UniProtKB/TrEMBL annotation:
Name of the protein described by the UniProt record: Cyclin-like domain-containing protein
Intracellular or extracellular location(s): Cytoplasm; Nucleus
Organism: Hymenochirus curtipes (western dwarf clawed frog)
A GO term from the CC aspect: nucleus
Residue ranges occupied by any Cyclin-like domain in the UniProt entry: 57-141
Predominant cellular place of this UniProt entry's protein: cytoplasm
A Pfam family matched in the record: Cyclin_N
Oligomeric and partner information: Interacts with the CDK4 and CDK6 protein kinases to form a serine/threonine kinase holoenzyme complex. The cyclin subunit imparts substrate specificity to the complex.
Family statement: Belongs to the cyclin family. Cyclin D subfamily.
Residues passing through the membrane, by range: none
GO biological process: cell division
Entry keywords, A to Z: Cell cycle, Cell division, Cyclin, Cytoplasm, Nucleus, Phosphoprotein, Ubl conjugation
Length: 188
């Protein structure tokens, strides 16, 4: 590396984290990591499923362009859905919510997280860093500071370990997961 280059430190896969006991714990934890009710019908008056899909697509593009860890996008979508299931939001603030959820998820999963300033640039400066930081506090409050969510992405390594024949399909599996996360999903 040149002295001006930075090699990002990534965690190594830990075989101890893909045991059956860990999988059972994750399945139990997943129950509390999901939105609690069909929020498009019960909570949100302005936000529609197609709006969620648009902001989710934008969020995925930002994560890809910034080369975020694979876990950032699913975790950000988890925060977005959980927030929308408990707090009404004006549609004019949906991109702010998406940017802030990426901000929080990158803090949880990245060694060098996305900055508020960088995320504001991705909104064409339609939001200010101060707004993002205020939204961060609101999200943390509404989610009761519970940011250690289990997402579908967390299960991929467990399933691939159990079915090694799928290892060759890992990229397609992750792509399908990203695609499904962009779709509006409601609990039954």
């Amino acid at each position: 590396l040149l002295c001006c280059e930075v090699d990002i430190i990534r965690r190594a896969h830990d075989r101890n984290l893909i045991t059956d006991r860990v999988l059972q714990t994750m399945l139990k934890a997943e129950e509390t990591s999901c939105p609690s009710l069909p929020y498009f019908k019960c909570v949100q008056k302005e936000i529609q499923p197609n709006m969620r899909k648009i902001v989710a697509t934008w969020m995925l593009e930002v994560c890809e362009e910034q080369k975020c860890e694979e876990e950032v996008f699913p975790l950000a979508m988890n925060y977005l859905d959980r927030f929308l299931s408990v707090e009404p939001l004006k549609k004019s603030r949906l991109q702010l919510l998406g940017a802030t959820c990426m901000f929080l998820a990158s803090k949880m999963k990245e060694t060098i997280p996305l900055t508020a300033e960088k995320l504001c640039i991705y909104t064409d400066n339609s939001i200010r860093p101060e707004e993002l930081l205020l939204m961060e506090l609101l999200i943390l409050n509404k989610l009761k500071w519970d940011l250690a969510s289990v997402t579908p992405h967390d299960f991929i390594e467990h399933f691939l370990n159990k079915m090694p024949c799928l290892r060759a399909c890992q990229e397609q599996i992750e792509s399908l997961l990203e695609s499904s996360l962009r779709q509006a999903q409601q609990p039954h």
